[in-house]
Automatic annotation (TrEMBL), chain B:
Belongs to the binding-protein-dependent transport system permease family. Residues 75-265 form the ABC transmembrane type-1 domain. The chain crosses the membrane at residues 15-36, 77-103, 110-132, 138-157, 196-222, 242-262. Keywords: Cell membrane, Membrane, Transmembrane, Transmembrane helix, Transport. This is Peptide ABC transporter permease. It is found in: Cell membrane. InterPro entries: BP-dependent_transpt_permease, MetI-like, MetI-like_sf. GO terms for biological process: transmembrane transport. The keyword Transport applies.
Length: 581, 279
């Protein structure tokens, strides 16, 4: 800290510092100058000493754990919990502002028609039952009869229709373009008529919070009436959110009557956990080695995956990202041998070890571990020699002995873009470049902003990411029909067989049938976008684990594999949470 | 201490000592930048987050990169940028200061106006704006810093030249029909060179600190460049979790380099300034 203070003092004095120094050079001041600089040295040495002591103490505490301070902490707080899981800000409580765009975000104060269970099956939440017609164009829902808003009024079919009409008209927060119209058969039955089959409609059905038609307005954020297990008692932007149990909640009563969210940064959350003021604190992998008395590090498998997108077309084309006209294609990554060599040559375990300190696992597709994951696409990787053979067979050889292979005078080199403010992707890019060098492929890493990446991302490799509790991202990342829309299918990948499976998956009438086609799109025995012999337009590398320090004795229920984002992912199972001792 | 005869050699000796320290530091940094194995800056060069040891003098970061190598590379980058930007700033100061003093009233008015304007904008904000407009990277940093540090030196140069302007040899030269450019180059520049040298050396530590500040704030290099500011911003969040070496050593070395050079600047001034040199 001492360093920072000195630096800042120099900055604030800055414009005049230089001038003042010169004004001091009058003869009568000549003895002052050396003394002053001696004082500066003394101050600097003192500051260094302070920093060293503080740092030493911090190290000692970090390594030994603070025994003294946590002895007299309460083992639990009864029916109240304080959690620090990051800043949960963004679209507060109103789907028109984006509430519901992150997995499990709505589960506390809202309910939705469907929800995911611990096996990632879509089950009824507000809807007690639902069915899909044979042409997959009509979805019928029966609402549960005991659902109440937090003010005691019943939740009706009109509320459901109001919610979806409002969001469809808005059109920016949730994709409901495939939705034709809705009708209420009576107070508790709703039919959704679709323009085209969409088996992934379940994702919107489980993400969109149902709003009260009578009480929804521009001030809804300040007074969010919902039908979830909790109601908002207090919300201070950037500081805290306090939730209290909703007496009218239709489901299993949660054990905790009050939840306090503290919006703390990573290091502040760790400090709060040390001080015993929070029961759950999130932790980045770098903090995972810390030991805190009375708390245990819990690690949860997630679908939050990271990958490289590799342009599949040769350079020279043009395409669109959102509204921008951009260059498309890369002569090196367009060669399937390059993509395959990277796919089988990169060592995913080692990458996870380097960038996540082991708190992650290899990924072979966008959807590892989910019901629509095809287990045939996992394979043994890190096979440097096989990768080199693939390159050699395709004509890539290192003729000039510089460690990088060439073919027809072109070196196997490309640029890998990553967002500079994202530590994980930045580290990932570095680790990939390092391993690719061993295969004879020169990868240059380049930090950029997302805006910059969207402009250059179709002609270069990008550190990409994804992971949802629904398979629609597969369609967005691999179907040739969505090329040039949004930032879908960045590599401009086209495979007619894969396209066929993807369309069949979308128009399936049950989730089981849809899953079958999602799996075939990954690998059907002959072709596919994933797997050892797949097209590898996107090379999936790792899935991160979510890490939390949790007070001993607090049971977090049977967590499903968690969705993207550590802020809300834990709360799918909130009603099951309880103290075990 | 008491007589001027004592002071003179002491001033010289101090200067030599300071100069020796700076030369040694710079030589170490440059040699380190050239000799240290860049492989130490790759991921998994050592165990991640290991504290300082004989193998890794400054410890390692979360990817296992050697912090000593990264710090030395960061310092040599800082020094290179420092020399470049301080030189550019000094040239700008000299040109504008001389122009203001020699080339008539309206040039003086214009230059003074520009100086007042630039000096009035908060320093760091001005730099961030410039770096942002240029688009980050080395050009952004060099321009951002070079264009914000010349003002005070320009004011001093202007004042000095105004003094020289009325000297007799200047009047004679002008009377002989010499052009203002000739006078500026042949008569004025040699006389203000010592002032410029002091200004350059004193600007140097300042410029280095600002380079670190800009990169700390994320307006400089891409995050994999081993610049001191980036090392500091990477290390700050880890101080509270006990990994103090990530921020302390880069900060400490930066502080030492900056103090050494600032000291040198002070001593050069003491020796060169007629008011204090007694020589």
């Amino acid at each position: 800290m001492g360093l920072k203070i000195i630096t800042i003092t120099m900055f604030t004095n800055n414009p005049f510092w230089y001038v003042q120094e010169h004004r001091c050079t009058l003869p009568q001041d000549e003895e002052i100058s050396p003394q002053k600089s001696r004082r500066v040295w003394l101050a600097a040495v003192a500051a260094v000493a302070v920093v060293a002591v503080v740092a030493g103490v911090a190290t000692w505490r970090g390594q030994s754990g603070d025994d003294a301070s946590s002895q007299d902490q309460p083992r639990n707080r009864g029916t109240e919990l304080v959690v620090a899981v990051g800043d949960v800000a963004g679209g507060e409580f109103d789907p028109l502002k984006g509430w519901g765009s992150r997995p499990a975000q709505i589960r506390l104060i809202h309910s939705s028609l469907l929800a995911v269970d611990k096996n990632i099956d879509f089950v009824g939440d507000l809807a007690s039952d639902y069915s899909v017609s044979d042409d997959a164009l009509t979805w019928s829902f029966t609402l549960r009869d005991n659902a109440r808003w937090s003010n005691g009024e019943p939740v009706t079919a009109q509320d459901v229709i109001f919610t979806y009409e409002t969001l469809k008209k808005d059109g920016t927060r949730f994709d409901l373009t495939f939705l034709d119209r809705m009708e209420a058969r009576d107070g508790s039955h709703v039919d959704f008529h679709l323009k085209e089959p969409r088996s992934t409609f379940v994702s919107q059905l489980s993400d969109i919070p149902i709003l009260p038609a009578k009480h929804y307005g521009t001030d809804y954020s300040a007074n969010p009436i919902g039908s979830g297990p909790y109601v908002v008692a207090d919300y201070q932007v950037g500081q805290q959110l306090i939730l209290e149990a909703n007496p009218n909640w239709y489901g299993q009563k949660p054990q905790f009557t009050k939840l306090t969210f503290l919006f703390l940064g990573e290091d502040a959350a760790l400090a709060a956990a040390r001080a015993g003021t929070v029961d759950i604190a999130y932790a980045p992998p770098a903090f995972a080695g810390q030991r805190i008395n009375g708390m245990t590090l819990q690690s949860f498998e997630t679908v939050d995956s990271r990958a490289l997108t590799l342009p599949t077309l040769p350079a020279g084309g043009r395409g669109k990202i959102r509204t921008n006209d951009v260059a498309v294609g890369n002569d090196v990554t367009a060669d399937p041998a390059i993509r395959k060599a990277l796919n089988i040559g990169l060592d995913r375990d080692q990458i996870a070890q380097i960038v996540l300190q082991g708190h992650g696992r290899p990924a072979y597709s966008l959807v590892d571990g989910l019901p629509w994951f095809n287990e045939q696409v996992a394979f043994e990787d890190g096979r440097t020699e096989d990768a080199k053979r693939v390159l050699a067979d395709a004509g890539w050889r290192d003729a000039d002995g510089d460690g990088t292979v060439e073919k027809d005078g072109r070196k196997a080199e490309f640029t890998l873009l990553y967002p500079s403010d994202d530590q994980l992707r930045s580290d990932l890019a570095l680790a990939v470049a390092e391993q690719a060098r061993g295969l004879g492929i020169a990868v240059t890493t380049k930090g950029s902003t997302w805006d910059g990446i969207y402009l250059d991302g179709k002609a270069n490799a990008v550190t990409w990411g994804g992971g949802r509790h629904h398979p629609h991202q597969i369609y967005e990342m691999y179907s040739s029909k969505v090329i040039d829309t949004g930032y879908n299918n960045m590599p401009q990948y086209t495979n007619p067989t894969v396209d066929g499976y993807l369309d069949q998956a979308l128009s399936a009438t049950t989730q089981d049938k849809a899953n079958e086609f999602w799996k075939k799109a990954q690998w059907d025995g002959q072709t596919g976008f994933a797997g050892e012999n797949g097209d590898a337009s996107i090379i999936w590398l790792l899935r991160l684990d979510h890490l939390y320090f949790v007070r001993d004795g607090l049971n977090l229920g049977e967590q499903p594999i968690q969705g993207h984002g550590h802020e809300w992912a834990l709360f799918n199972t909130l009603v099951q949470w309880h103290w075990t001792s | 201490m008491t007589t001027s005869a004592d002071r003179k050699p002491r001033g010289r000796r101090d200067l030599l000592v300071s100069l020796g320290v700076v030369v040694a530091v710079v030589a170490c940094v440059v040699a380190g930048g050239l000799l240290l194995d860049p492989a130490q800056m790759r991921p998994s060069a050592g165990a991640p987050l290991s504290p300082p040891s004989l193998r890794h003098l400054f410890g390692t970061d979360h990817l296992g990169r050697d912090m000593f190598t990264r710090t030395v590379h960061g310092l040599s980058l800082s020094l290179a940028i420092g020399v470049l930007t301080a030189a550019v700033s000094t040239v700008i100061s000299a040109v504008l200061g001389i122009c203001a003093a020699l080339f008539g009233r309206w040039v003086d008015g214009l230059v003074s106006w520009v100086i007042d304007l630039s000096i009035g904008i908060p320093h760091l904000i001005f730099m961030v704006l410039l770096a942002f407009v240029v688009g980050g990277g080395i050009p952004g940093i060099v321009l951002g810093i070079a264009l914000t540090h010349w003002m005070s030196l320009a004011l001093l140069v202007r004042a000095d030249v105004r003094q020289i302007r009325s000297a007799e040899f200047m009047l004679v030269s002008r009377g002989l029909g010499r052009s203002p450019l000739f006078i500026a180059w042949r008569h004025v520049t040699p006389l203000i060179l010592p002032q410029l040298l002091v200004g350059f050396v004193l600007m140097f530590p300042h410029v280095i600190l600002h380079e670190a500040a800009l990169t700390f704030l994320g307006f400089g290099f891409s995050p994999q460049t081993p610049a001191i500011g980036i090392l500091l911003s990477e290390g700050m969040p880890h101080i509270s979790s006990g990994m103090w070496w990530l921020a302390v050593f880069p900060g400490l070395t930066l502080l030492l380099v900056v103090l050494a050079i600032a000291r040198l600047g002070d001593r050069i001034r003491t020796v060169l300034d007629p008011a204090t040199s007694h020589g």
